[in-house]
Amino acid sequence: xxxxxxxxxxxxxxxxxxxxxxxxxxxxxxxxxxxxxxxxxxxxxxxxxxxxxxxxxxxxxxxxxxxxxxxxxxxxxxxxxxxxxxxxxxxxxxxxxxxxxxxxxxxxxxxxxxxxxxxxxxxxxxxxxxxxxxxxxxxxxxxxxxxxxxxxxxxxxxxxxxxxxxxxxxxxxxxxxxxxxxxxxxxxxxxxxxxxxxxxxxxxxxxxxxxxxxxxxxxxxxxxxxxxxxxxxxxxxxxxxxxxxxxxxxxxxxxxxxxxxxxxxxxxxxxxxxxxxxxxxxxxxxxxxxxxxxxxxxxxxxxxxxxxxxxxxxxxxxxxxxxxxxxxxxxxxxxxxxxxxxxxxxxxxxxxxxxxxxxxxxxxxxxxxxxxxxxxxxxxxxxxxxxxxxxxxxxxxxxxxxxxxxxxxxxxxxxxxxxxxxxxxxxxxxxxxxxxxxxxxxxxxxxxxxxxxxxxxxxxxxxxxxxxxxxxxxxxxxxxxx
Length: 482
What we know:
mainly alpha, 6-stranded antiparallel sheet, disordered C terminus
């Protein structure tokens, strides 16, 4: 028993340390993990080269040179920027990054609400197919610059609507039928893939192509490449849209009432319910927004990268899960994490082409980097939920969005944007003040007191209450206005 208790105490200490790490400490941990992954990967590459057969060793008796591998994996993923800043390798890396930002944001929003959306892949497929069909149909009515101004927003909106509606299905099942969202979203991925295949073959297939794909969108219905060559599968407009959406998602989750509902529902559902949050509606809304972002990723994939919809959609949705974990579930961090993952995806192609390293080993090296960098943030996210769920653990969340802190005298002080609150011990007395209601409530161990207050902040924030045993006085002050 003592060993079990000691292990539990050590785990709690580790989780508390992870959850309390500052942004600088987390960055240092991520950088250290990245460096360690490179060292471990270099040893693995060198060892594999010793086993492999080759006419001439590339590096100290090994057939594989770790320095060349990492040069191709990281530096060459952007090509020769000095000679040609708009080269194809840079376009490929940034194109991958753009799509991964959308899928990463999709997963991040659901995670914030405490819902594990593993179905971003299916939502992206549905959104991409709907975008291709609707945009192509509408392109028959408009053309030129006007067509671009009309069709691009239409395509993005179509992807968002269909992706959101498809994600609302597991959201509603989770909220009202208590169905496990991991199972339902994974199953709906298969449904989406096969449904898209059936619809393309039966209704929307390009009659001039043997492949399972829709008709190609006209050039004016696709994202313009702007400064990049027309052959590049990348658009600065799409990248700017991804960054804008990431910033908007960060603001929505951090500075709005909806974002507060989502965060509290994910961290402390009982506190959210106590504060008047409709947990079921919040889950459905969060999943719908998550699916909409995945659907936009599908729309960008169609209108930027391919120009049509093809049934063999790469696993961007599943990669988005890794991107979110790399970002620590932070919408702004998703941009940087998406860039790193885009570099790895593009660089892996370079390594396979420029060296004799087998693609399987390249995949292992990329996986090591992701694993080492993601694990600290992954355990921190688990620790956040662990400390928040255990009694008395973690940082309490006030029902008005503030924080609850303990004073030196054992009282708890809750401060928020709408009200201030002071609670004393069980036999001390309690004072609550609210800027909105102008009411002050005081209760002690032997009596209660209720008095009307004015709308003035200072008057409503300086009520006192006296308890019978022992006597004490508590003062309450409201927080800053929202």
